[in-house]
Amino acid sequence: MGGNDKYSNVSLISESFTKSILMNYKKWLPWIFIAFILLLTMMWATESEILIGIGIILAPFLLVWQAYIILKSDEKTEDTFDDKWYEK
């Protein structure tokens, strides 16, 4: 009996969930941004040590999650750096 049999379903679920997020990144990014702004607002507005602690842990995670989704997306642009940033 292989040790990987027990965790193969978890791997498949995780992989399909990740692919669904990456395919719909335009749907997920605004929600992650909204959660980030709400988290920062709640951290600023309240003096709860627990909420501030959760925010300190969660805020960088949300930013890394956004960057990961954008960098792993399959969408490619036709624009080049020269076309967009250099004047002709």
Describe the 3D structure.
The chain contains 4 helices and no strands. It is mainly α and 88 residues long. α1 crosses α2 and α2 runs antiparallel to α3. The longest helix is centred in the C-terminal third of the chain and has 24 residues. The termini are far apart. The relative contact order is 0.11.
SSE arrangement:
Blueprint: H1 8-23, H2 25-45, H3 49-72, H4 81-85
Order of helices and strands: HHHH
Low-confidence stretches: none
Helical fraction equals: over 70%
Q: Strand portion, in percent?
A: under 5%
The overall pLDDT average reads 76
Computed structural class: mainly alpha
What best-fitting shape do the alpha-carbon axes yield?
elongated
First-last Cα distance:
65 Å
Largest sheet: none
Q: Compute the gyration radius: what is it?
A: 19 Å
* Number of helical elements: 4
Annotation, overall tally of beta strands: 0
Q: Summarize this, please?
A:
75% of the residues lie in helices and 0% in strands. The chain is mostly helical and 88 residues long.
List the defining traits of the structure above.
mainly alpha; 88 residues; 4 helices
